Amino acid sequence: MASSTLKVKCSECPIRHRAVCARCDDDELDMLEGMKTYRSFRAGEAILWRGENLLFVASVVSGVATLSKTLEDGRTQMVGLLLPSDFIGRPGRKEIDFDVTAATDVTLCCFQRAPFEKMVDETPHVSQRLMELALDELDAARDWMLLLGRKTAREKVATFIEMLVRRSDTNVTFSFPLTLSLPLTRNQVANYIGLTFETVSRQLSALKQEQVIDFNDRRHLEILDLAALTIATGDKDADGFM
Amino acid sequence: MASSTLKVKCSECPIRHRAVCARCDDDELDMLEGMKTYRSFRAGEAILWRGENLLFVASVVSGVATLSKTLEDGRTQMVGLLLPSDFIGRPGRKEIDFDVTAATDVTLCCFQRAPFEKMVDETPHVSQRLMELALDELDAARDWMLLLGRKTAREKVATFIEMLVRRSDTNVTFSFPLTLSLPLTRNQVANYIGLTFETVSRQLSALKQEQVIDFNDRRHLEILDLAALTIATGDKDADGFM
DNA sequence: TTCGATCTTTGATCTAAATCAAATTGGATG
DNA sequence: CATCCAATTTGATTTAGATCAAAGATCGAA
User: Is the distance from CB of B92 to CB of B120 less than 8 angstroms?
Assistant: First the structure.
């Protein structure tokens, strides 16, 4: 199962300014140091099962995890993608209604429930930050409802790639042609955007054919024409309005 | 536009124990009385537009409102349904990314932003209640992602009806055969579950044909066989497990 | 370095739901 | 009460994406 990893000091943590601890001062970081443990998961490993009692809450430090729901006959739908700084677990919630799985190797910064919840209760900016993170997830879920309910296969694939561009750290450097790592297999992408892996593959091939994107290995994408990609999402009209 | 309505005293409010004010004491209710206004909207009227600056936050007192997103070419997807006690507006958010529309005649209990946010900051149980309401919406959004991404037309329609049963007040009395009011047109239902209105109509006719449900007028449904309806949702296996 | 497993691509065919097209119904309005 | 308009039902046809199928590519392990 999960192995322990060398703990990084909060002050040197890569997600320091985006995670739940974003607005903590030095004293508060010291408190967190005392209740935190690092845990690592290998790609493919289960992090949490649906219905399982949450023994910890956690921030994703590195890697990518998926949230997914499964119907009895095996159809599955991803309902979220956790990237570094995203949070697992909610105040007052003892369990979750989806499975959490490591898509790549993942390192979590885990907090023991009891002391963490005590800190949340006593530190308004921490509970405010949790609220912000929850509302961001709600916005993302609603954008995805539009994608799942109304977008075409092409629009779904384009929207997924654009989301990766927007959320990945690579766009900080922003060197063209933009290269980004694709943390999911075709099948996982399909489960995220409500398609089959064959359709995902076909749409990726079409976008490559049209020189909107390029790829040679399975784990990376190059964005050749971001404007064309954006148009292909269906979100904005030709003028880029909306 | 919205007309004002006679204000009901908080202590006699029908949503008193489920809304954001659920855990307020008498003093706190007095504070709320001072900052609240009732506003009514006719069926079909816009309550809020996407991007509009939120001048108030509000609880739904009566009626049903829809949250929806629209693509440039007119395809629309409902991303939420607001029933009595549901809340509009979030701490720290000045605008919303979807349209809010009255599906039936709607009465809102509106709070001025500034004093309400002050109260949220000073009253932990109110901000906790807001967090609970947001997390409930997040759970609902994720259930809907599974529906939109993976369910068949039949499963979608059955799930929608079952959700109405679960959330409507009628199930308090629970007299069989269960009758419930359908606050949406076929077209609105279609926009909620990612189908066309023709497909919704066909699936409703099929469920009627199979004597799972019955209906004569457009605005009501009778549940003849709740067990069959539940199986038709695809959520649970034949034993009702899950 | 080869083997085997998994992932990916691409082609052929099928199908669930969309689209197109009329009736028909029902509720609101004068 | 008659009229009208929007909502609904039902049928015929089309189509986007699923499913079925098979051939490559990639990668880790022996």
Answer: no
> pLDDT per position in chain B (242 positions), as tens?
455 567 789 999 999 999 999 999 999 999 999 999 999 999 999 999 999 999 999 999 999 999 999 999 999 999 999 999 999 999 889 999 999 999 999 999 999 999 999 999 999 999 999 999 999 999 999 999 999 999 999 999 999 999 999 998 755 556 678 999 999 999 999 999 999 999 999 999 999 999 999 999 999 999 999 999 999 999 976 555 55
Q: Does A91 touch chain B (CB under 8 A)?
A: yes
Sorted by where each starts, the structural domains of chain B and their CATH numbers stand as: 3-147 (2.60.120.10), 152-232 (1.10.10.10)
Cα–Cα distances in Å, from A152 out to A200, A208, B134, B167?
A: 11, 18, 29, 31
Strand A106-112 versus strand A36-41 pairing type: antiparallel
- Chain pair A-B, CB pairs under 8 angstroms: 119
DSSP annotation of A58 reads E
Other Cβ atoms less than 10 A from the Cβ of B62: the count is: 16
Positions in chain D where some atom is under 7 Å from a protein CB: 7-12, 16-21, 26-27
Which 3 state secondary structure label does DSSP give A221?
strand
Contact A71/B121, CB-based, under 8 Å? no
For testing contact with chain B, the best of A66, A146, A196, A235 (most B CBs within 10 A) = A146
Closest CA to B63 of B100, B97, B96, B111: B100
Say if residue A194 is exposed, middle or buried (CB neighbours under 10 Å; 0-12, 13-18, 19+).
Answer: buried
Query: Which of A71, A75, A138 is opposite residue B141, by nearest beta carbon?
Result: A138
Contact of A123 with chain B, judged by CB distance below 8 Å, is answered with no
Contact present, B94 and B56 (Cβ < 8 Å): no
Contact A125, A81 (CB under 8 A): no
